[in-house]
Write a structure and sequence with these properties.
The complex is a heterodimer of chains A (360) and B (173). Chain A is an alpha+beta fold and 360 residues long. Chain A has five helices and 20 strands. Chain A is globular and about 70 Å long. Chain B is mainly alpha-helical and 173 residues long. Chain B is 55% helix and 1% strand. Chain B contains eight helices and one strand; from the N terminus they run H-H-H-H-H-E-H-H-H. Chain B starts with a helix and ends in a 9-residue tail after the last helix. Classes of the chains: A alpha+beta (360), B mainly alpha (173).
Amino acid sequence: MLFQPSCHLECITGLVAGRKALLSRFLSSWNGPSVKTTWPVILLGLIAPALAAEDAARQDGLAWLTKMANASRRLNYSGTFVYQHADRIETSRIAHFVNPAGGEFEKLETLDGPAREVIRTNDQVTCYLPDAKTVIIEKRSARRFPALLPEPLTGVADNYVVSVAGMDRVAGYECQVVVLEPRDKLRYGHQFCAETRSGLPLRARTLSEKNQPLESFAFTELKMGGSFSRDQVRSRYAAKSRDWKIDQSTLVLRDVPADTGWTLTRQPAGFRKLTELKRSIAGRAVMVSHIVYSDGVAAVSVFIEPLPKTRPAQSLSHQGAVNIYVRPVADHLVTVLGETPAATVMQIANSLEYRGGLGR
Amino acid sequence: MDKISQWMDGELSGHETQKQLTRVKQDAELHHSWGIFHLIGDVMRGERALSREFEQRVATRLPGEPAVLAPRHRAASRFTTYALSAVASVSAVALVAWIALFNNPLAPPPDLAQAPATPPPTAAPSEQLASVPSDGKMNEYLIAHQEFSPSTEIQGLATYIRGVSSARPLEGR
């Protein structure tokens, strides 16, 4: 291509566009069968191994993510883990058992500070708060959705550079380090260490834009395997809590998505809507619209409810890697929270718009 | 101000120029305007690159502009007017930013990909709103959120610790 002396801006743009077109043709032909006819073999010889290696690392990383989720769900285990955020460390016990006759049971119990217990029994999560003599019950018709597996994993690779990075040791077990590096600043980085044989995540870290840990979960002691034991996943407050206050939240339309009438004018790149429903929140009488967006790894929840009598000021707070933004919008109170940077949470809150329809 | 504009365009005589020069020297406000006029001129001619921070600040503040479109029980028409004017002002800011940053014939075409019309991922939280540690008032929302987060899918019930965490810095322990 010769550069003409009379060539102006359009011409330069054309040249650049031409180069881009060539590049994209090259890239698209990469997976196709016509590679040999169009492109010099020597160029491929240089680039192919690099691309193949990156692809292999990504496939490997994604496979480990799948393995981790499966292990968390199917494995019997019990152990102690520390939750570290800001300058605080909290120690808890966790036990997970699957009944071969059917049923998944999990128990989380804090070991320091005020006693807390969280019990999962299939489709129900119950939180016991003994000091407040309160029980919070989250009930739903189907367990854990969105299912991370298998389809949304492709979205993960669009939003994160997924790779495996060496071995480490946590709670006495060898583990594989899996790294999710965000492709932009709308999300945080993640690093997991998955037990080599089972894939159980022994450590999970969330990293800030500056690669500083925001939050970390890590086992300090762990026992895997063993047979189903109902006692290990039963609440110690089951009997005592009979006369406690019970805050039960209900998901009215259950798994059927509801049209809340709310939508985003600027949905952050890489995030898609997972679900939209009408529900109640424990301890609150009013119905709340709940919309969830996710990029495959992080999720952001939007709660919209009528404005309480005393209009709250807008506020920004955080709990570990979760940022929480509260903002009154006209006659509504909007609460947006998720394990993403504050800017992402705020962008979602600030671009919320009522499009009408059902819901009010 | 007209005179200064003419002076900048080289339309004043030697005598008149001398007069304006004295004015600008004495009047701080005029002096400031003189600087601003030159800055605008430079930017429009593409002789001066705006700092990266400027571009980011404009883009960061765009998402934060209150383009509020929400239903209201009363006073709907007044609200719509407000919302539309807010949108209009945001658009105007975006347009000015666009012209200042990108209407530059010397700029290389790839820069167009960084148009400020799409909020860039670099958006930082508003400086006026500092983030404070959660005081536990949001725990019910955290618990409600956790069920839908893929992190629960990967790590299991452990992530619920966020919603029952005993860390309440305001109350102490």
